[in-house]
């Protein structure tokens, strides 16, 4: 008697992804020996078709984005990725090729980021594809970077370039043209900054997923500080700069950057530059934190304050 | 400036559930010190409106079922629950009272089972409510119970009563009457057998979520053994027995029991009885494992083999 479709799906597409402790996905739960003497770092993110990805996005890119947004949260705490659990709720008519593509994307990024699948669940849904991923990493005890902990006078730094994800969404939805394909690629495939050694360097930090200005506001509130950033020093990619001045506000407030936003005491800025060079990741100073109400002020190079009508992105 | 709805939802409904390491759900990820010298046990389950629960099911019961099906997987490995992460994808028009009820159900069961919320994500969806929960527990090193590991001659035992969940679904969908309300309650609210000390007692085990016969098949395949059970010794509740003979096959093959199915060497059956008494959980011997093809034979007391047309439940 054939086993039901659920077991077949798991066996063909997900079992090859299973790592140590996963018991080949044949058991009720994974059994994992945690790295001795390390703190565990855990986070979960959901992605829904039509909300977080577009229906015709390639399934391997959907998978990699799901894994990478979670890896980005680990990177923001300075954690080393270890393993993940995954639940997939899919319409009954989802093509087998979709699952094959989805699994191949996971396989590719598992190799890149050295994580393995620990367990999960597959179910049907009458709605759109609904994905959830929980990832586990580890850090040396007490060294995890938090949103709180910054001090007045700390510098504000970001990795990479800001705004490509939001502009990529504009490209995907036909509001902006980018013949290079760079922006769309950045929207579809974040580059989590795993490997940047921020523990002991950044006084506070987070990854930018809901827009630079809104996310900096979180750091301000968590540390009870004001922030001021210079819009013109915010690093933008060549295609983002080519989009022109009208898109600057989108870059500062749009979501899906998955770069790191760090508060760094001036005395440690050299250490950050060294860590960034070791990891091959660009870092740029864009502003500073100071005593004052927990608000973000954005200025142009000439000192004018920039008025932003929309400050960030809510996933709800 | 008000924060977006996502933060408001988290703050009002989910923050009160956050426990140690959750950083009040204000950070990118939780930071947890794992219990020293213990193995971690991890599992994830998804539940979708219209598939795993009915649209008008009370939200507190939906929450408790979601938590309990995961607790049941921990119980099957003999693990002590520790904490969980949760993702909720909800339609934009989901009432605030739904979230309040959902959170109150979690709060109630957090107290019962001594687990706390570590983190998660809330998103919108154009489809039905889509929930995913990852739970973490721990066991003494090397003592987790697996689906494999049984030997020929081991007895097959179950906890509690079998079939109430499947009959409860029949009640919920109008195919069966049960004026006591017991069966519907059992369908809506599993009773995970957390606290039954099966480590070192059961040679193999799992929780029964997809039907007794199908799940016993998993143990047979994992241990490469045949199984024979006596249908008339399978424990059924009074309302299940009252449903009558035509519903016996449903009890044996229907899903949603969340009882434990254990292989126990005869020499340890007394130890199982003692552990069951300590935990206040009924256990019943229903059959045995033997050498032979990995198949399940179901017999009546008179030795006749029972033909089952449907052997289990696939969630996909």
Q: What does the model show?
A:
The structure is a homodimer of 316-residue chains. The first copy, chain A, is built from nine helices and eleven strands. In chain A, helix 3 (96-113) links the parallel strand 3 and strand 4. A six-stranded mixed beta sheet of chain A has the order 7-9-6-10-8-11. A four-stranded mixed beta sheet of chain A has the order 2-5-3-4. Chain A has helices spanning 5-14, 59-76, 96-113, 164-172, 182-188, 212-223, 238-243, 248-253, 269-279, and strands spanning 30-32, 39-48, 80-90, 116-124, 130-139, 155-159, 204-208, 226-230, 259-264, 283-290, 296-299. Chain A starts with a helix and ends in a 17-residue tail after the last strand. Chain A folds into two domains: 5-26 and 34-139, PurM-like, N-terminal domain (60s Ribosomal Protein L30, Chain: A, 2-Layer Sandwich), CATH 3.30.1330; 155-299, PurM-like C-terminal domain (Phosphoribosyl-aminoimidazole Synthetase, Chain A, domain 2), CATH 3.90.650. Helices cover 31% and strands 24% of the residues of chain A. With 316 residues, chain A is of the alpha+beta class. At the A-B interface, helix 1, strand 1, strand 2, helix 2 and strand 3 of A face helix 1, strand 1, strand 2, helix 2 and strand 3 of B. Strand 2 of chain A pairs antiparallel with strand 1 of chain B, so a sheet runs across the interface.
- Cα-atom radius of gyration of chain A: 20 Å
Average pLDDT number of chain A: 92
Q: Which CATH first-tier class of the largest domain in chain A would you pick?
A: Alpha Beta
> Can you identify the CATH superfamily of the largest domain in chain A?
PurM-like C-terminal domain
| Sequence of strands across the biggest β-sheet of chain A | 7-9-6-10-8-11
Shape of chain A: globular
Work out the oligomeric state of the chains in this entry. homodimer
**Secondary structure: helix percent of chain A:** 25-40%
- Taken as a percent bin, the fraction of beta residues of chain A is 15-25%
How is the CATH topology of the largest domain in chain A named?
A: Phosphoribosyl-aminoimidazole Synthetase, Chain A, domain 2
Secondary-structure element series of chain A: HEEHEHEEEHHEHEHHEHEE
Taking the sheet with the most strands of chain A, its summary is: 6 strands, mixed
Give the count of structural domains of chain A: 2
Individual helix count of chain A: 9
Query: In whole angstroms, how far apart are the ends of chain A?
Result: 44 Å
CATH level-two architecture of the largest domain in chain A: Alpha-Beta Complex
Counting DSSP E segments of at least 2 residues, the number of strands of chain A comes to: 11
Greatest chain-chain interface? A-B, 74 and 73 residues
SSE class of chain A: alpha+beta
């Amino acid at each position: 008697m054939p086993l039901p479709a659920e077991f077949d799906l798991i066996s063909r597409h997900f079992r090859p992804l299973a790592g140590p402790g996963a018991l080949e996905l044949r058991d009720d739960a994974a059994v994992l020996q945690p790295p001795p003497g390390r703190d565990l770092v855990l986070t979960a993110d959901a992605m829904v078709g039509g909300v977080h990805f577009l229906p015709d996005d390639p399934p391997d890119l959907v998978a990699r984005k799901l894994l990478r947004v979670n890896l980005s949260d680990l990177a923001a705490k300075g954690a080393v990725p270890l393993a993940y659990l995954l639940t997939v709720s899919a319409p009954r008519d989802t093509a087998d090729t979709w699952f094959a593509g989805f699994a191949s994307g996971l396989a590719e990024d598992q190799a890149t980021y050295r994580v393995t699948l620990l367990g999960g669940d597959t179910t049907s849904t009458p709605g759109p594809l609904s994905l959830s991923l929980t990832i586990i990493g580890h850090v040396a005890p007490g060294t995890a970077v938090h949103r709180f902990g910054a001090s007045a006078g700390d510098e504000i730094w970001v990795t990479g370039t800001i705004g490509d994800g939001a502009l990529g969404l504009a490209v995907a939805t036909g509001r902006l043209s980018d013949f290079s394909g760079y922006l769309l690629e950045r929207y579809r495939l974040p580059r989590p900054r795993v490997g940047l050694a921020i523990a002991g360097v950044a006084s506070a930090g987070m990854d930018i997923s809901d827009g630079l200005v809104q996310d900096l506001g979180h750091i301000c509130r968590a540390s009870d500080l004001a922030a001021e950033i210079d819009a013109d020093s915010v690093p933008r990619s060549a295609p983002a700069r080519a989009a022109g001045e009208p898109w600057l506000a989108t870059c500062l407030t749009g979501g899906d950057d998955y770069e790191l936003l760090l508060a760094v005491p001036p005395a440690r800025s050299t250490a950050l530059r060294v860590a960034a060079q070791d990891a091959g990741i660009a870092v740029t100073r864009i502003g500073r934190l100071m005593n004052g109400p927990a608000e973000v002020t954005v200025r142009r190079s000439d000192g004018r304050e920039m008025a932003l009508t929309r400050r960030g992105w809510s996933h709800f």
